[in-house]
Each structure stands twice: as structure tokens, then as C-alpha cells.
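Question:
Write out your own:
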Amino acid sequence: MFADRAKIIIKSGKGGNGHVSFRREKYVPNGGPDGGDGGKGGDVIFVVDKGLNTLTDYRHRRKFAAEPGDEGSKKKMHGKNGADLILKVPEGTIIKDAETGRVIADMSGDNQKVTVLRGGRGGKGNVHYATPTMQAPKYAQPGGEAVEIEVLLELKVIADVGLVGFPNVGKSTFLSRVTNAQPKIANYHFTTLQPNLGVVDLDEGFGFVIADIPGLIEGASEGVGLGHEFLRHIERTKVMVHMVDAAGTEGRDPVADIKAINKELEAYNPELLKKPQVIAANKIDAIYGEENEIIEKLRDEFKDDGIEVYPISAVSGKGLKELLYCVKNLLSTLPQGATVYESEFDPSVKVSSEEPCIVRQESDDVYVVEGQRVERMLGYTNIESEKGFLFFQKFMKDQGILEELKNLGIQDGDTVRVCDFEFDYYE
């Protein structure tokens, strides 16, 4: 089965912790701090691979993670940076946040390489915290946290022209005749189980990419048949070619078929009907003469919509040149370049922005401070030491926590609980 959707979990690398150590040299009994910085965590980077055309690689594996950075070490040695994770995808892949559906990146156009998640920064070693009044700091900065999110990968093929029509009207035969594509061709429904792309080369170096979009039947926009799996591939196309069976070999009504498909396109995305349309009345090799009542009916029905009808034979090649030049002329009036979806959100900013500290009054004389920032700060501060406790107090002041406690009415002697630690408050 053609894989054009996959849901995976990606995780950047955690930054390495800064190191706490002190010089130990002969005749230097009280050496200064020399703890090195931690290494940066690896990024998660998506790269377009022109050789890929499906997302099969992501259908059988769910989790992907970059390497964490190493901790710093003594003698001011920097920890090793974590290796980046490179994920290769076909051109046209859209990366979305699985939770909200917002676009993170569209791997199209100039977006051939995109960093989706940034690794955590390396923590600073204790050498950075030495001051004239604190010459032996016993704490270092922890590495930045890793970022983990679930993303939806969705492939929307990049083609100038979308070839649509009910099964068995000759789309695959047409594509093989006018392009370099080699789709499977057989006389039964749903022969085509994936979008087939081919390049049409015309005179004067003009060419365009055409895609055979399979599975469009009534109810496609609601997931009937295979339609829901392939409707997304029409979104990037600029022109749509409706192919119908002008010979009536399938016993279908071509006018009703075109209206049914347009109804499904409108239900999926009303903007699709704003694209220019052309009708290719195929299989004229199976009718007597140049035209018949089916072709006349098509012209009468759609002339007010400005949709031209071209009788063709994908088997003999009759009428193909006229149809292709009509498509060329339509494309020349439209903006060049593939449709690229704008990024709507940066997951690194969303996830790495820690929640603010919460300060609340639990009882008359007990106040509680909660939050990721203060928890992380306590994780790397030795508050048992006098200098460590001074560092903790400075943090509480810089974060505005002391001011919030005062606003809540804290008094000297009241208790402040932070994680598993309790302190008596005094100004």
C-alpha cells in the first residue's frame, strides 16, 4: 500500500550538564573551580531526499531520537556534542504537530533541509560561577532539556497538473503515453494504488509535471474507497484534467461523473474548485466518427463554466497534442513554483518555554512555590552550603518569587515550602 501518511515521535538530545570540580595541583591546596561545560544535545533535522516517493520508512518505526550531549569534565574540558538526527523524507512532505494539526514545516521549494527540534544547550561548568566573594562554587548549570513531540508526516505530491477521473477511464494509459511514467495498467477498478507522476516535455523547453490521482469516487471526501487517502495530493496542483470515457464502454454518465468528483473536491476543500479545469473525453478510438452525443453533451453542460472539452484517444494518441497545449497555456497564466505551506508553529519554542513558577498560600503561615524552573534550580544547587543558599535566594529574587510572597502577605517566621525543602522566611 502507498504510504503517504505516518505518525512518529521525535526527540531532540538533552544538553550535557556542566561539571563541578576544582584544581588539584601540588603546592596549590585550594585550587579554583575548573569544571567544564556540557555538550549541546543533537538537533532533529528533516532533509528532502529526491530518491524517495513514499513515507514507508516511517510506517514500521515510531520513535526517533537525537543523541544527548556529554557532561563537561575537569580541567575545563567541554563535553562532546550529541550527534544530530537526520530524517530523510520525499519532497512535498508536510510535518505537522499531531496534537493540533498545525504546520511545522513543508519540505518543498527552498525548504530542502529544516531543523524541526533543537537540542538542549550544554550546561555551564562551575568555572563560570566564580566571583570575588564566591571563589569555590559547588554548583554547575544542568543541560537544557530535550524536546519530544509527536508529529504527523503527510505527503502531498508536487505536480502542476492533477489528472482525475473515475476508475478505468484510461488515466494510466494517458499518463504513460504523454510522459516518462510507467504506471501499472489493467482493466479493473483501483489498478492505481498510488499517485503516479510524469513529466510532459513540449517544444521550446516547456514542460510540466502531471499526477494521476487515484481512488476518486463518490464518498471519497468521507473516506469511502481510497479517495480520502489521495485527495490531499490535488491541493498543490494548479490545473485539473477531468478524464471521462467518451465511448461509454463502462456504461457510465460522464457528466454525472465530473459533477460527482467536483462535489467530492468541494467537500474536501472548496478552494480546489477555483483551479482551472479541462475535460479529456477519452476513448474516441472506440466511437464512430470524430464526435458523438456524449462529447456534445459535455460541451453543452460545461461551456458556461468556461471548461473546454478535448476528444482524445490515449491509445492512438489522437487529440493529445491539442489537450497538452491547452494545459500549457493555462499554466503560463498562473503563478510559477510549487505551493508551499507556511510554518504555523515552532515546537522547540512551545516545549522549551517552561511554565512560570506558581506561588500560593497553603495556610495562614505556610506558602508554597512550585514550577519547573525552581525544581530544576534546586536539582543543581547545594543549598546545604552557605554560598549555595545565597545563590538560591538570588534566584528567588530574580524570578520575582520574593515579591509575590510579599504580595500574598507573608510575615517573618512563616514557612516557605519548595519541593521537599522548607525554609523560615525573614526579610
Notes: The chain is about 20% helix and 20% strand.
